[in-house]
Amino acid sequence: MKVDFDIHGGNIEKEARKLGLSTDRIIDASASIVPFKLPKKLNNYLINSIKNESIKSYPDRSYSEVKNSIAKWHNIDPSMILPGNGASELFTWVARDAGLNGISSLPSPGFGDYQRALRCWNASYIHNPIPLSWTNRNPQPFPIKPKTHVLWITNPHNPTGQLWSRSSIEKLLTNYKLVICDEAFISLTPGGESQSIIDLTKNHKNLIVIRSLTKFLGLAGLRIGYAISNSDRLLEWKEIRDPWPVNTLAINATNMIMKDSKMHKKRLNKIHKWVEEEGKWLHQSLSEFSTIKPLPTTTNFQLIKSDSSILNVIENLKQRGILLRDCRSFITLDENWIRISLQKRKQNIRIINTLKDYIN
Known about the structure:
This protein has 360 residues and is an alpha/beta fold. It has helices spanning 12-19, 40-51, 64-74, 86-101, 113-120, 166-170, 214-217, 231-240, 248-259, 261-287, 311-319, 345-355, and strands at residues 27-29, 81-84, 104-108, 125-129, 150-154, 178-182, 207-212, 225-228, 292-294, 301-306, 322-326, 337-341.
């Protein structure tokens, strides 16, 4: 299946042009990015990075400084880290290794970019459905054990928002030649870090963990993520990838947020409080509708099932400057499903009030 990134979410500039609106008049609840501005200290640091002309030089191809700062945060060896141009670039290299190891299992519904990456290498994959009904107990055991060579896991899961338990994933590591765990949303999830499996990469060479910083920082346009795996694998990727995939501004932002633990933790606390408060408010507000049902979630987005097609509702809200996530790009989901990403309270109220004009 070809993934249509026009219904992927986050296409705010394109939609603004079509609607004849400025981007600041649009609520983009289709992309799961924190709605907060950068910490002032980090914002000023990036501005100064431009003023002092640090971007005139090529980035350090070894990425030594940024690898050291990430390594210190996660308490792992710097040789086990490879920064990337967002998580998506790293998925491309992950998919190369997946193809070399056999058939991949993609739990579905799931993030469509995994398929794009696997097709780059003509790698074989199959979809394995996960249950679309669950309780609000967290973390939950990973629900399937596909009989393939490679297993892709998203934790917490996208688009359902379920947080898988570390113990249930650890038990799977001996069952597969390669396990890929995408932890893009785990730092945004209250209690999420306790279920991370990053430290398991020290003793399991068949494990790759991918992290994204763009959602945490609210800088999707800067493109920064990193892979954590055994050093031999990452060295091989480094030798065959583009010479300078990560730009200097992304490196500088990562260095600062990883080195300044006070700022990092303050940011995390702010996000977790927001997810807990706004997540609860939005879920309760959505539960008051009779024709849609919000499913339990742990992170900054909510998956919602409608009794009937909700495409007209998505289009009507778009015309009023509110973008929701059309879930047809997720395998096993159809036009009855939408995903709403958390916003600040004012924007969340506007979303709920506008929904009331179109559904019961």
